[in-house]
Specification:
Length: 458
């Protein structure tokens, strides 16, 4: 063994007692114990059994510093992995420590009721709009909040691109836990803050305090774990914290911009643990969900806006929720500063800074794609000769919209549908008009598609 690892990990060990083939050794911290068990358990086990026999066992006595020079440090006994005295999952670190441990959030004392959750109270599950884009993540979060640490969703990893609501949902789960379980210690921290805390504690040689503090949390929420990739030593500390919390039945909630399998620069042992629970993705919200988000935001802020403006904003801001809310704030600001009512003209002017262009050319191809997406019809089926009712109706509606919103001739429109002639286009348009007069559902579908095309043209 190299001298430096021996000096770091073995010199501080103190033999306490040997009784009934059980050797008890004292180690300086919980992190120290977990590091030995992770990296040197094989060596320790082989040596103990060689010296004391096959039935030999190893136990640890962990020192928990109390920070008071006139008091003896608190100790906790833990078994070694290669013993049979207790399963790993049954090993519990005490949740209540009578003596104070330094809190990295600079909150005096260590009693769990004194831990500030660092949560934004405005982030709630009620204010988080559910849609196809986030349904799995939100419902998993609701389940976790009702029974933190007691479900298979541990850890719950929420991932997706920027601005899709990962932080909102993660903090909302934390707030819901506090509402349902007021005695639970909940803590939210960004990965960057966690890294900075670790560095500060390393400089002051009080890493044990840092780790001990986090091991007292019931529900730990860490935001943007992809930033751990550039902090190798921080990963070691987080590994110790993760292991302890998970083994103690505590809940971990993590957010990331990528699924665990795509996170580069993280230790494989961490990635494997991230995959123990549920990884739920957050996708871009569809048009209907964006409408709901805007309407809820308007209700909460006491705003009123014409329906056509709301639709225009929802249709044109498609990347993420953050931009959607930013557009709404900009509209309100421009309306107040210019003392002008919010209308479509103002919306077009404001959204120029959010979208590349406020005017888009409507083509037959764009209408075809829009209708295919609306009815969930494969694009190639729209061009084939088939008598399936849903395909025929989708094709007829597309021809009708193409005639209404483009300047193409009937012949050109027909050519875009597998070389059909102009009489087919005429027949399709008349069929659509007739069905709109007799079938309310059909009419509603056409009207909604007309509005989508109009919005796209603005």
């Amino acid at each position: 063994m190299e001298w430096q690892p021996f000096k770091t990990w073995f010199e501080p060990i103190k033999p306490i007692q040997l009784e009934n083939n059980v050797l008890t050794i004292q180690v300086p911290s919980q992190f120290f114990y977990e590091y030995l068990e992770e990296h040197y358990v094989g060596l320790l086990g082989k040596t103990i059994k060689r010296e004391l026999g096959k039935e030999a066992r190893l136990e640890y006595r962990i020192v928990v510093e109390n920070g008071t020079p006139h008091q003896h440090p608190k100790t906790v006994n833990m078994p070694g992995q290669f013993t049979n005295s207790k399963k790993d999952s049954e090993v519990d670190f005490p949740l209540t420590i009578q003596n104070p441990v330094k809190n990295p959030f600079v909150i005096p004392g260590i009693k769990r009721v004194q831990i500030d959750s660092q949560l934004n109270p405005h982030y709630t599950l009620e204010s988080f709009i559910e849609g196809d884009c986030n349904r799995v993540a939100r419902r998993a979060g609701k389940t976790v909040s009702e029974k933190p640490g007691g479900t298979s969703f541990n850890p719950l990893v929420i991932y997706g691109s920027v601005g899709l609501g990962k932080t909102h949902l993660a903090q909302a789960i934390g707030n819901e836990v506090k509402r349902i379980h007021p005695n639970k210690a909940v803590l939210y921290v960004s990965a960057e803050k966690f890294i900075n805390q670790f560095i500060d504690h390393s400089k002051n040689s009080i890493i044990n305090d840092f780790i001990h503090f986090y091991q007292l949390i019931d529900v730990l929420i860490v935001d943007d774990i992809q930033f751990f990739a550039r902090a190798e030593k921080t990963q070691d500390a987080f590994f110790a914290i993760f292991n302890h919390l998970h083994q103690s039945g505590k809940q971990l909630i993590l957010t990331s911009d990528k699924p665990p399998k795509d996170l580069d620069g993280l230790q494989e042992r961490l990635l494997s643990r991230f995959r123990w629970g549920l990884s739920a993705d957050m996708q871009m919200p569809d048009f209907e969900t964006r409408m709901e988000i805007l309407e809820m935001k308007m209700r909460n802020d006491g705003l009123e806006m014409p329906k056509e403006v709301v639709k225009y904003v929802a249709y044109n801001i498609q990347n993420n929720v953050r931009e959607l809310e930013g557009a709404l704030i900009s509209l309100l600001a421009q309306s107040s500063l210019n003392r002008k009512e919010i209308d479509l003209e103002l919306a077009k002017r404001v959204l120029k800074s959010f979208v590349k262009t406020s005017s888009k050319e409507i083509t037959i191809e764009s209408i075809q794609k829009m209708v295919c997406e609306y009815f969930d019809v494969p694009y190639d089926k729209l061009l084939q000769k088939t008598r399936k009712r849903e395909i025929v109706q989708a094709r007829q509606i597309t021809m009708y919209l193409a005639k209404s919103f483009t300047k193409n001739s009937l012949k050109t429109i027909g050519e875009h549908f597998g070389g059909r002639d102009h009489t087919t286009v005429i027949h399709s348009c008349q069929t659509v008009k007739d069905l709109m007069d007799t079938d309310n559902t059909f009419r509603d579908n056409v009207i909604e598609l007309q509005q989508k095309v109009q919005l796209a043209a603005m």
